[in-house]
Amino acid sequence: MRQGKYPFVIGFLALPVLLYSVFVIAPYVQAFQLAMTNWRGVGAPEWVGFDNFQRLFEDEAFWKAVQHHGILLLALPLITIAIALYFAFMLNVGGGSRSGQRVGVRGSGFYRVVFFFPQVLAVAIIAVLFQMVYRPNESGLINGVLMKLGLDPVFFLIRPNLALWSIIGVLVWQAVGFYVVLFSAGMASIPTEIYEAAEMDGASRVTLFFRVTLPLLWDTLQVAWVYLGIAAFDCFAIVAVLSVDSGGPDGATTVLAVEIYRNAFTYSRFGYASAMGVALFFLTLTFAALTLRVSKRESVEY
């Protein structure tokens, strides 16, 4: 049995590794090669070395997009995790103890379906829905209510200082449901005896959350932060559909994915767009590695 283990493992993994190499690794390698060229989509690429990367450091649109990613990396994980943690705690622990089991608030099953509903919608559909929500006239969901109350409409996607935060609101709305489910699964694995012991010592709901639930969910929080950080780098569809002129007004909502698309398919600068893609790849990789390193701590066993 031991002698046949390695041929079995190799045979089992050969096809998945081959497919991964062809459809994931090979495109990455091609993108790195294309980033070293000046190619307009037709003809032979012209080798330019690191010129495209040098241009990145002088490109105002690139740095504006990086700045927006910095805001997204702080706001999106913090807001989403805070809301999802609160909802998950209330749905799993907030109802107290019944028959020796921790339960959520009344109607928890219904709320789980409601919170998860955005996950079944395509990203483009969500963007179109929020176009109607954010409309700057009486036909908009929010401004329609404000105008009926005699208030001035709010130009969510037109005002440069408000447009990015309006898009962050959509990203949070879309993501919260998934992380409610993720945190709920983590809370379900925490033994009831730990909560009971804390309650016997006089712990309130707030104390239970910060002293019991949060420390025992640390590994799940770490994963959530990494996922949300990657989502902050990958928000092309929402920005492209929802923003004014794909990244406007005046570049107020542009992100690297939008700039990559614009350079490749509007300006036909495929080599330069690939250089931006390489930069995005390393930014994402660096973020994930730093997050895992900074948030690393000893596992709590129970």
Automatic annotation (TrEMBL):
InterPro entries: ABC_transporter_permease, MetI-like, MetI-like_sf. Its main location: membrane. It is found in: Cell membrane. Pfam families: BPD_transp_1. Gene3D superfamilies: MetI-like (1.10.3720.10). One of its GO terms (biological process) is transmembrane transport. GO terms for cellular component: plasma membrane. PROSITE patterns: ABC_TM1 (PS50928). CDD domains: TM_PBP2. The chain crosses the membrane at residues 70-89, 110-134, 170-190, 225-244, 270-292. Residues 66-291 form the ABC transmembrane type-1 domain. Keywords: Cell membrane, Membrane, Transmembrane, Transmembrane helix, Transport. The keyword Membrane applies. It is a multi-pass membrane protein. It comes from the Bacteria. Belongs to the binding-protein-dependent transport system permease family. PANTHER family: ABC TRANSPORTER PERMEASE PROTEIN, DIACETYLCHITOBIOSE UPTAKE SYSTEM PERMEASE PROTEIN NGCF. This is N-acetylglucosamine transport system permease protein. It comes from Plantactinospora soyae.
